[in-house]
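Memo subject: From amino acid sequence to C-alpha cells
Keywords: amino acid chain, backbone geometry, C-alpha cells, three-dimensional fold.
Body of memo: The sequence and its C-alpha cells, given next.
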Amino acid sequence: MTHAPTADVAITGLGLVTPAGIGVEANWDRIRAATPCAAPDPALKGMPADFSCRVPDFDPDELLGGFAGWQLDRFVQLAVLAAREAVADAGWDPRDWDAPRVGVVLGNSLGGAETFEEQHRALRDDGPGLVSPLAVPKYLPNMVSGQVAIDCGARGVNLVVAAACASGAMAVGTARDLLRSGRCDIVLAGAGEAALTPTVVAGLHKMGALSKRCDTPETASRPFDAGRDGFVAAEGAGVLVLERAEDAGDRARALVRGYGATCDAHHATAPDPEGAGIERALREALADADVEPSAVGHVNAHGTATPMNDVVEARMLRRVLGDGAAVTSTKGVTGHTLAAAGAIEAAYTALAVQHGEIPPTANLEQQDPEIDLDVVHGRARTGPIDVAVSTSMGFGGHNAALVLTRA
C-alpha cells in the first residue's frame, strides 16, 4: 500500500544521547543553560589535544541490556539508545506498527573507530588468532541503521548517509523525502558517532581543526568568538521519528518543511570561501518549504568554532537572511559530534520551535567583528518561533539545510 505525496512531515519523537546528557530533558536543560561539556579525556592522555566532549554516565550494559556491551561498537550503542527514546517519545510500541512500512535512515562517517583500533592492536600484538569474529560487524558504518532496525523491528527502507559532518542533517532530509514519496509511513532519522580515539583525534589535530586550549577545555569550544581556535571533538547520537503530518495529529513537536543539499566541489576539508554551496542548500530548503528568507526567526548554525567556517557561514547567513534571525551554535555546549551533529542540532531546533526558546551560544565573550549576525549569548531568548533553520557542512564539501516550522 502506498500513499500520495504530501508536503508536511512531522517530528513526533526525539531521542538524544549527547555530551549534554542522556535523554531529551537533560539535553534541553543543559543547552538552555549554555553549560559547556568539554573536559580532560583519560583516553586521550598524552595527546596534543587531550580533552573532548563525551556522553556522561553511559553504561551500555545497564542502559541497553543484553549483549549490547560487547556486540556493538559505541557509535551504535549510542544510536540504539537514542532510537529507543525517540520511538517511546512518539508514542509507538514497535509491536504495534506495520514493520515493513517503517524505515531507518541514519548517518555516520567514521564507523567503529574504537573497534578498529582495538582489533588492530590485537593483530599487531598477538596475531590474527586473537582478532575478534565481531571485528567487521562491529566496525561497519551501516550497522548504525542495521542494528537500530534489529532492535526495534523496522523492516522498511534502511540506509546510512555518509556525508561527514552533514550526515545527520542529510539523513533527516532523506527520511522526509521517503515519507513524501509514500515509500514509508514512519522513518527513524538521525545519526550516531563515537570516534574519540587517539588516531582520529591525532588526525584532526594535525589538520589544525581542533582547539588547543588544553589548560581550560571548558572554554575551548567558542563559536563566533573572536578568540576561537578550533572545535572540540565529541561523540553522540540523535534520532527523530518522522511521520506524515496528517498521521501525527497532536503528537507533532514541529514540522520539517524544507530540505536542501549541495556539494561545494571545492576542497576536501575547507569550505568554499564564498560559502556558495551552503548558500545554495539554504536557498533550496527555503524554496522547498515555500518560505521567504525574511520569515526565518532562528538559525541553529553549523558554527564549529573554527576560524574559517564561522566567518564563511556568518557571511552566507547575512546574505540570505539579512539581520532578522536570531542565531545560535549549540556546539559551544556539546562540542562537535561530527556525523551526528546535524541530527542532534535538528532536534535542538525542533525543541526551540516547540518551546519558543532560543538557547544561547556558550563561551561567546567577544563576538568576532567579521560576524555581523544577531548571535544569542548570555541567556536564552524567549518568544514565538514560526520558522527556524538548521545548517550543516562537512568534509568533502557536503552541505545541508533544514527548515522547521511550528506544528
